[in-house]
């Protein structure tokens, strides 16, 4: 992005080419994917903070809008971390997170809003890519916060490569925040099951289930073999959906 940014600012023009000119190797594991996204997010954040498109000489209005959107995307996506902590706040601490008249009405509103959002993403990315797109945004949100912290502190990576093709590690400290998030969500569901207080927030239970199903995709990529990863995802997601459905039905019945 930095190269095209400088070329555009010096008067060069670009055109859309519908056919890929080159194809790279996608990260095979969640650890490599996290490392790649961290580097990309740091590049975009560094551009936003220290070479902002709004004041960059030589750019047209549309070019400023494009680069501003691209560099802002990681920062905006990191807000998902607040959304992801909602189920625990509601289930464990009973924090009031909505102003709806009842849990049922909020649940109906929330599900319809979620469905419309997914349809919007499907129109952009395609039906098959929608779960992967949503999962990647949630998976990347703590990585984007780390990128902001590193850039603000002046940290620079040791090398300029983006993805190491020869070595694809299965685990990395970069996925620790996502693992902790999953642990918190699972704890919230278990806490809900044994909570004896009245008016348990069923909408937060469904919320936690949706987040877990979403995170199951990227976090299960611990093997380079895609077929193996996809076989793991089905029982994991099925177990989550079944548990949330049974607890929701029990709540409405009592």
TrEMBL record:
**Keywords (A to Z) from UniProt:** Glycosyltransferase, Membrane, Transferase, Transmembrane, Transmembrane helix
Record carries keyword Transmembrane helix: yes
Q: What is this protein called?
A: Family 2 glycosyl transferase
Tell me where it mainly resides.
membrane
Determine if Hydrolase is one of this entry's keywords.
no
What membrane topology is given?
Answer: Multi-pass membrane protein
Subcellular localization: Membrane
Tell me the PANTHER family matching this sequence.
CELLULOSE SYNTHASE CATALYTIC SUBUNIT A [UDP-FORMING] (PTHR43867)
- Name a GO CC annotation attached to this entry: plasma membrane
Record GO terms (molecular function): hexosyltransferase activity
Question: What's the domain of life for this entry?
Answer: Bacteria
Kindly list the residue ranges recorded as spanning the membrane. Answer: 72-93, 105-127, 133-152, 173-194, 200-222, 234-253
């Amino acid at each position: 992005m930095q190269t095209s940014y400088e070329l555009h600012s010096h008067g060069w023009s670009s055109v859309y080419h519908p056919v890929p000119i080159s194809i790279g190797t996608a990260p095979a594991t969640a650890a490599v994917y996290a490392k790649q996204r961290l580097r990309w997010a740091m590049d975009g954040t560094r551009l936003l903070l220290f070479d902002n498109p709004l004041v960059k000489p030589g750019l047209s209005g549309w070019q400023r809008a494009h680069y501003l959107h691209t560099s802002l995307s990681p920062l905006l996506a990191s807000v998902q971390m607040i959304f992801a902590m909602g189920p625990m706040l509601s289930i464990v601490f009973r924090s009031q997170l909505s102003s709806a008249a009842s849990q049922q009405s909020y649940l109906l509103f929330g599900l319809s809003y979620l469905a419309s959002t997914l349809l919007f993403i499907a129109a952009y990315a395609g039906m098959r890519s929608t779960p992967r797109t949503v999962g990647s945004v949630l998976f990347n949100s703590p990585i984007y916060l780390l990128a902001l912290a590193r850039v603000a502190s002046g940290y620079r990576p040791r090398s300029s490569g983006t993805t190491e093709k020869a070595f694809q590690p299965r685990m990395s400290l970069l996925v620790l925040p996502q693992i902790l998030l999953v642990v918190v969500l699972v704890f919230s569901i278990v806490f809900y099951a044994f909570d004896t207080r009245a008016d348990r927030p069923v909408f937060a239970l469904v919320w936690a289930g949706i987040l877990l199903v979403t995170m199951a995709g990227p976090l299960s990529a611990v093997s380079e073999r895609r077929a193996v990863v996809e076989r793991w995802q089905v029982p994991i997601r099925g177990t989550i959906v079944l548990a949330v459905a049974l607890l929701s039905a029990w709540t409405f019945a009592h």
